[in-house]
UniProtKB/TrEMBL annotation:
TM ranges: 29-52, 64-82
Main location: membrane
Localization annotation: Membrane
Topology of this chain in the membrane: Multi-pass membrane protein
Family, per entry: Belongs to the major facilitator superfamily. Sugar transporter (TC 2.A.1.1) family.
MF-aspect GO terms: carbohydrate:proton symporter activity; D-glucose transmembrane transporter activity
Domain Major facilitator superfamily (MFS) profile: 1-114
Keywords: Membrane, Sugar transport, Transmembrane, Transmembrane helix, Transport
UniProt key word Cell division: no
Keyword hit for Transport: yes
Protein name, per record: Hxt1p
Amino acid sequence: MVVFASVGVTRLYPNGSDAPSSKGAGNCMIVFTMFYIFFFATTWAPVAYIVVAESFPQKVKTKAMAISTAFNWFWQFLIGFFTPFHYRRNQLLLWLRVCRVFSGNVPVCFLLFA
């Protein structure tokens, strides 16, 4: 992601934001995004399912796995669906909204897992 951010900031618009973007820089960003997705999907992504599988007793494990997987997919869908609308509406305060969501979830996670 460091390469992605560096190329995006320094090389994507070499002549200013009014000029056309660099095709090579855009392709480089796409390739490194694909690398990131590949390596995340093959290493850290399954960890959520392992943690959930090991958190519940055998008696309720199947129902708990089903519910946790459904909520995982549901929240991923909501984040992917609503992020562009929030970004277009007010680009400067997007970081504040994201910070509120994450900081609001900290007490919930603490209560559930502590």
